[in-house]
Amino acid sequence: MEAREHAEALIGYFKRLSDETGEEIWKYGLETSQEWRRVIVLESAPLEQVMALVGIVHANGSRSSGWHDLSHGVYFWASQNGYPVPEFAEFFGTSRATHEAIRDLLEGQISWHDYANVLIAQFKDFCLEDPNQTVWKAGLDTALRWQEQIDGKPISQTQVLSLINHLTANDQRLDRYGGTELDALTSGICDWIKGIGYYSLLPEGLQRYTHSSS
Hints:
Order of helices and strands: HHHHHHHHHHH
Strand content: under 5%
Oligomer: single chain
Shape: elongated
Helix content: over 70%
């Protein structure tokens, strides 16, 4: 499929979902697909515009299958047209790094502090790549607050409740389309709370994020 045709297909896909649901994630996908089509038709798209688009699709690539498709399309188009994109393994390796951190945590190979550090670094990158999406700043703020509690002992019930309230205050943090990193943050916090003996404080909607071995 040619890049222009690919962009048009994604525009139709995101427009349909945006019209049907009114959800911000699909509206943003529509706007991003339209931006891709715009730079495709330019004879020579400015570097800063293309790299800004590349950053957006990188940050959002794990949020749904449509976003994943869009990230692949933009990446390969930019690469084939000579723009300085990262190596494929690096560009699409962010979610893999998160999954590896989850595995290492469950196997006891890294600490909660180090696990939070992985997510903090990724949220910082996403904030730079996609500064208009507040969901990444929300993730970063929550991960930093969590790490402060990990490093502070003893942990009181009041502190745990404050963290839970912070986690649930913004619906985007619990969005089923939050992506790999936001899901990893939510499950990590819930597992940590369960592990320190405060599982009963978790709302039912958050209890489902915990692993049985935690």
